[in-house]
Amino acid sequence: MNLQKTRAAITAIDAYIPPYVLTNEEISSMVDTTDEWIMTRVGIHERHILKEKEVGMSYMAERAVRGLLKKSNTSPAEIGALICSTVTPDMVFPASATIIAGKCGIENAMSFDMNVGCAGFIHAFKTASLYVESGFCKKAIVVSSEMMSSIVDYTDRNTCPLFGDGAAAVLVEARTDGTGLQDAILRSDGAGDKYLYMVAGGSRFPATHETIDKRQHYVYQDGKNVFKWAVEKMADVSAEMMERNNLSPNDVAYLLPHQANLRIIDAVANRMGINKEEKVLVNIEMFGNTSSATIPILMWDNQHKFKKGDNLILSSFGAGFAWGSLWLKWTM
Question: Any idea which fold 7-177 has?
Fold first, then answer.
């Protein structure tokens, strides 16, 4: 009897993108910048922003999860775990995953948040895979949802053009047909804590009038150092994934990189020897950087291109610093 190893696989995917589009032209009316300047440096033309009042990222996550359950004909009662990757939770506590589960009628499931910056989805998916492959639960959901507009300073020309809002969710189930998660490399280095962070709002610097007056509740980024680290680490880990699994560029159907900067994406593709026009998926121009949601949104946006058994390489880099790569064989 030929028994294949049990692997965690994505069996359904859905997303929610808020309808309001913030263009470079509108940003140019807020700060001293232009469409040409933004496109040349990062490759972003527009991004979607959640405009509804008094709602948080769970508003988008709920819609992505509900859509996922509907399209996969899955009952909420079948879900054994829900993991939410986010840097913009509804509140410090309770976990947004618990709020999302409650809104979607998912009861008695394990639920928790993961904050690994922009690398959140790949870390959360690997975590969910361990639960599914071990038999702890039959079905898990990973939802990545980010309301980056809530922590972006729209008077800062260096950061406000970069980020957008959105959510995507995947259903994770076990498969024994050879598809699913083949390998994962996940890394971190705490040296990045001074290059990409938000000063106030945590236990070190709780919110005060002073922290608000100093505008310390927004994203701070040292762009040059983040760019340098991201290019090196994303390229290294993606190349390592291919080398240790004896994958050639011809073996890879598509690279799904974190959508932070078009120049970073180009550098990663070059290091891997992958044809950028044919095999590198990009939608940063339309959505901007939605942090941990970029890769699942990219996957959702391009799922019509994938065939069962296709080798997909996922690669991301985020605050911390944290980075990593996944090798998936597409299941659907």
Answer: Peroxisomal Thiolase; Chain A, domain 1 (3.40.47)
